[in-house]
């Protein structure tokens, strides 16, 4: 619970087996250099600060105003980025590892520069918006004049959409030719969104009770204005409504306002309209020139901003994060006090980096860094590289290791791809997987920038896939399967087809002498088995027993690992009360089962019936000490089984009672430990919570649940490893079906030309299905099953996983998150 001041040099060395040794430090930093020191610590990325102001609300802390200023600048930068994205400017290529820092420029000068650019850009936007409105209005007026000319001249009569009803005036019915001759009739012309034309016409018809002529014509070119809903160009129509009377005209104007349809005054005199058209064209030409110049100047301004936008974003985010960290510290009169976690072997490096920064900036003030005792839970810090990172993620998904607990990721590097390969064993499929992963690994620098969610997952796990492919090649070699077909690398003399049986089935039978090693197939499965009719019977038995053997070895290995945790934490009670009974229980029952499987494999049963191991295990409990002579594997088997069963039975109360009784004796006269530190509940030490004050009944119940769970899980976890057998058989059968249903049929074609052409297309189909079904779907299935075997069956034997990650204040991670945000917002 306190710092071990006598840590050996070996403990301080970085190792993947255990997390780094962590020290709780206290920093005294003068106020005038506090921001620079915290910024340098962010560059180092090795200090995790602790909140010393938990009782102070977020709005009452010292640097709230500075954070708000940074947030305001971030808002401006988001505005810049949105303007750049709207203009679709070409992106600026930058080094992804570039890390800008404040030099001669300060946050104040940067703020001034950003505000000036914002002011200019807002002025450009306002000017461009006003000119756009003028240009849109003049362009609409031009189109209205053209359409009215055509309408009144009758040149576009084919496109008229007039009402079928005539206009009623003072009891007379007029047709369309008469309307233009009546001086009491007026028309209204305007522009409306094409999507609203039908509704607009319908409303007019109902509001005016059919007393109108409605005409509309499409404007071919879209407006420069874009839709607010989807950003698509807006297509418009010119409409002309012919009515009688001023009252109806007023109604139409109100309806036009409701539909946001501008109305333009157009003279009925053609000479006036021609003159107005000339004036509109002249004004359009002038505005277009000014608008193009304004757009060009605005784009140049945006391109200048774009060059520095990423740097500004990083600098402001850094500044904001520094103030966020400083809000965690206590403020004294002339200094601030910070506390946090540092890897013990990095304390001197942190001091050296801070001193170097002080010398560069000519800062005479001194900084004090002291190690401090604490009862807080220590964070877990496992150093990883690009190869081990994915394996560590697999383990952390189950639970972050407790401080200095053995890291299962070290063993997962080997056991995970191996268990995967047991289910996926095929030299051909493994080679394809290995080749794909090898390609990604070789070109990882180029492929790192690919922006695709699915590919990013594959890219992050490229080394895991590489290992899974390599192990699958090995297990495929042992299974002697290449795309489900056997290969005869070595000569086979030990097993042949025997067609002399009653039903003439091609069963494989032994004809060689097992006592002569030269007659046995040296490595892997004899190819004679893989084409035999009794292949499935033999492979079922072989792979089922192999799964049990590997599963029990895997679980016993996990149980053995727990002894190193107990020794490291000096927990003799757990060593005696948990490890020894668990190990004995597992080995006496399931270890004995593995022994009998191997013994049965190594025994020549010619001329006799081999005993059933399942019946043996059942009667080991039902009839202790008794074994039928016909079912006996070796002499004295009954006595051996009786002794093993008695040891297993003794282990149950041992597992249940020893730890509660030992802890009661240990804590009998101990007083509860008082915690004076202000610690978050989730970071308070779990040992203090559960042991002080000690409750025998609570501990007894916990051990009772743990004992029952362990005893039952011995059976269920062993059975769970049978998934290795099931998926391996399923993978082999699927591969065989694809081969027989596609390629095999093609090879049997008699005509050479047809066979060659068919083989070309069918091979493509076979390869596509192999990749889609066997590599992707079956590969994902085997991956998930291997993941479950590690999380549940293996990790539960030794791994608690109740720690929390070391999350240092790091600019490197901050920049990475910021770039991901910017990429997502594009």
From TrEMBL:
Keywords: Hydrogen ion transport, Ion transport, Membrane, Transmembrane, Transmembrane helix, Transport. It is a multi-pass membrane protein. It comes from the Eukaryota. It holds the Pfam family V_ATPase_I. One of its GO terms (cellular component) is vacuolar proton-transporting V-type ATPase, V0 domain. One of its GO terms (molecular function) is ATPase binding. The chain crosses the membrane at residues 418-442, 454-479, 548-567, 579-599, 639-658, 752-777. Its main location: membrane. The keyword Zinc does not apply. It is found in: Membrane. The keyword Transmembrane helix applies. Belongs to the V-ATPase 116 kDa subunit family. This is V-type proton ATPase subunit a.
């Amino acid at each position: 619970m306190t710092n071990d001041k006598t840590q050996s040099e070996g403990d301080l060395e970085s190792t993947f087996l255990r997390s780094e040794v962590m020290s709780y430090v206290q920093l005294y930093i003068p106020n005038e250099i506090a921001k620079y020191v915290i910024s340098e610590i962010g560059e180092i990325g090795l200090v995790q600060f602790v909140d010393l102001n938990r009782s102070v609300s977020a709005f009452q802390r010292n640097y709230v105003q500075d954070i708000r200023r940074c947030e305001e600048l971030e808002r401006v930068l988001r505005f810049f980025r949105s303007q750049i994205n709207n203009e679709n400017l070409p992106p600026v290529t930058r080094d992804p590892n570039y890390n800008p820092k404040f030099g001669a420029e300060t946050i104040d000068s940067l703020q001034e520069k950003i505000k000036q650019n914002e002011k200019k850009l807002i002025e450009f936007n306002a000017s461009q918006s006003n000119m756009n409105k003028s240009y849109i209005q003049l362009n609409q007026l031009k189109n209205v004049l053209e359409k009215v000319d055509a309408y009144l001249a009758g040149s576009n009569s084919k496109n008229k959409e007039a009402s079928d009803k005539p206009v009623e005036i003072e009891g007379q019915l007029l047709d369309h030719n008469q309307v233009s001759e009546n001086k009491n009739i007026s028309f209204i012309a305007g522009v409306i969104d094409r999507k609203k034309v039908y509704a607009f016409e319908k409303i007019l018809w109902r509001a005016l009770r059919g007393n109108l002529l409605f005409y509309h014509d499409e404007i071919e070119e879209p407006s420069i204005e874009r839709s607010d809903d989807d950003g698509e160009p807006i297509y418009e129509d010119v409409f002309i409504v012919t009515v009688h009377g001023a009252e109806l005209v007023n109604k139409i104007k109100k309806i036009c306002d409701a539909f946001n349809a501008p109305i333009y005054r157009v003279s009925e005199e053609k000479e006036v309209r021609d003159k107005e058209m000339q004036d509109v064209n002249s004004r359009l030409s002038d505005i277009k020139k000014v608008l193009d110049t304004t757009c060009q100047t605005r784009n140049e301004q945006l391109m200048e901003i774009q060059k520095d936008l990423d740097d500004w974003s990083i600098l402001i985010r850094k500044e904001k994060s520094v103030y966020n960290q400083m809000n965690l510290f206590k403020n004294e009169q002339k200094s601030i006090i910070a506390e946090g976690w540092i890897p013990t072997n990095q304390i001197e490096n942190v001091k050296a980096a801070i001193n170097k920064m002080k010398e560069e900036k000519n800062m005479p003030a001194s900084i004090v860094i002291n190690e401090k005792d604490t009862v807080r839970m220590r964070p877990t810090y496992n150093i990883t590289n690009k190869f081990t990172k994915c394996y560590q993620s697999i383990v952390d998904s189950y639970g972050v290791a407790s401080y200095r607990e053995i890291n299962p990721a070290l063993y997962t590097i080997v056991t995970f791809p191996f268990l995967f390969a047991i289910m996926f064993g095929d030299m051909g499929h493994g080679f394809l997987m290995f080749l794909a992963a090898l390609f990604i690994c070789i070109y990882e620098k180029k492929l790192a920038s690919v922006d695709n969610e699915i590919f990013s997952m594959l890219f992050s796990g490229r080394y895991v896939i590489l290992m899974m492919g390599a192990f699958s090649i090995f297990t495929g070699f042992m299974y002697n399967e290449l795309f489900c077909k056997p290969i005869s690398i070595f000569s086979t003399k030990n097993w042949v087809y025997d067609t002399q049986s009653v039903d003439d089935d091609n069963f494989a039978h032994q004809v060689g002498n097992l006592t002569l090693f030269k007659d046995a197939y040296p490595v892997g499965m004899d190819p004679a088995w893989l084409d035999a009719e009794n292949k499935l019977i033999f492979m079922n038995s072989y792979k089922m027993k192999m799964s049990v053997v590997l599963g029990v070895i895997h679980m016993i290995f996990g149980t053995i690992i727990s002894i190193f945790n107990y020794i490291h934490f000096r927990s003799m009670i757990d060593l005696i009360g948990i490890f020894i009974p668990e190990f004995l229980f597992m080995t006496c029952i399931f270890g004995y089962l593995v022994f009998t499987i191997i013994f049965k494999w190594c025994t020549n049963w010619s001329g006799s019936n081999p005993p059933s191991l399942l019946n043996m295990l059942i009667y080991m409990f039902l009839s202790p000490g008794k074994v039928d002579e016909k079912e006996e594997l070796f002499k004295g088997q009954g006595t051996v089984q009786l002794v093993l069963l008695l040891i297993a039975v003794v282990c149950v109360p041992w597992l249940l009672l020893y730890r509660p009784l030992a802890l009661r004796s240990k804590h009998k006269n101990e007083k509860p430990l008082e915690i004076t530190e202000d610690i978050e509940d989730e970071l308070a030490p779990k040992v203090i919570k559960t042991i002080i004050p000690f409750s025998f009944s609570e501990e007894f119940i916990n051990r009772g649940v743990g004992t029952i769970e362990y005893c039952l899980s011995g059976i269920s976890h062993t059975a769970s490893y049978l998934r290795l057998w099931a998926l391996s058989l399923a993978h082999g059968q699927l591969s065989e079906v694809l081969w027989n249903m596609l390629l095999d049929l093609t090879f049997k074609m008699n005509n050479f030309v047809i066979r060659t052409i068919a083989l070309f297309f069918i091979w493509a189909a076979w390869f596509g299905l192999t990749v889609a079904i066997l590599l992707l779907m079956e590969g994902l299935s085997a991956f998930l099953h291997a993941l479950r075997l590690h999380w549940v069956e293996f990790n539960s034997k030794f791994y608690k996983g109740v720690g929390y990650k070391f999350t240092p204040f790091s600019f490197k991670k901050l920049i990475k998150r910021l770039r991901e945000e910017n990429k997502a917002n594009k």
